[in-house]
């Protein structure tokens, strides 16, 4: 992947800060081969910086200890060394390396680090528009999605089912709903 961005940002130059009150970081993963467990990370932050020439850059951080699957026991297990090893690796990070046009939408390339492992990922990004805001400055909205393989990031626990298959699937879908405030 190249560090050059091939498209200009659809938002004005400046720094845009992710508003965690109006944003969400959600995920889903196959459970028992037949359904999905859904959850969120309740603590996260990030910025979108747009140069005067329109080149965007994104940096984001997720507090993996803020995982919320609505089951305290499961959340505790996910934070353990079996999965995130959150005591050693409490943060996941994303740093963009480029943005490409994809029809009316975009592809946001970047390096994602989870459990101390960094891999390139590409998020499907939809720009929702901008709004003058409600007295605090302009806001911009985005939705993004990426599917990662947990094993690529060292989360390789195997929990086989007696009749075949596994308790937890390998593919994790991460969905971001982001509102950013221009600083």
TrEMBL record:
Pfam families: YceI
Organism lineage string: Bacteria, Bacillati, Actinomycetota, Actinomycetes, Mycobacteriales
Organism encoding this protein: Gordonia lacunae
Domain annotation Lipid/polyisoprenoid-binding YceI-like: ranges: 15-181
Protein's name in the database: Lipid/polyisoprenoid-binding YceI-like domain-containing protein
SMART domains associated with the record: YceI (SM00867)
Entry's family note: Belongs to the UPF0312 family.
SUPFAM superfamilies: YceI-like
InterPro entries for the chain: Lipid/polyisoprenoid-bd_YceI (IPR007372), TTHA0802/YceI-like_sf (IPR036761)
Superkingdom of origin: Bacteria
């Amino acid at each position: 992947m190249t560090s050059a961005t091939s498209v200009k940002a659809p938002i004005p130059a400046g720094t845009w800060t992710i508003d965690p009150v109006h944003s969400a970081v959600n995920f889903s993963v196959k459970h028992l081969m037949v359904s999905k467990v859904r959850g969120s990370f309740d603590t996260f932050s990030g910025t979108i910086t747009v140069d005067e020439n329109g080149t965007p850059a994104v940096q984001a951080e997720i507090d993996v200890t803020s995982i919320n699957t609505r089951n305290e026991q499961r959340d505790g297990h996910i934070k353990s060394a079996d999965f995130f090893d959150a005591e050693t690796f409490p943060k996941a990070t994303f740093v963009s390396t480029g943005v490409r046009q994809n029809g009316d939408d975009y592809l946001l390339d970047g390096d994602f680090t989870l459990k101390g492992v960094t891999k390139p990922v590409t998020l499907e990004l939809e720009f929702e528009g901008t709004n003058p805001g409600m007295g605090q400055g302009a806001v911009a909205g985005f939705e993004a999605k990426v599917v990662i393989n947990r094993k690529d990031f060292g989360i390789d626990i195997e929990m086989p089912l007696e009749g075949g298959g596994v308790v937890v699937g390998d593919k994790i879908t991460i969905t971001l709903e982001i509102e950013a405030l221009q600083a």
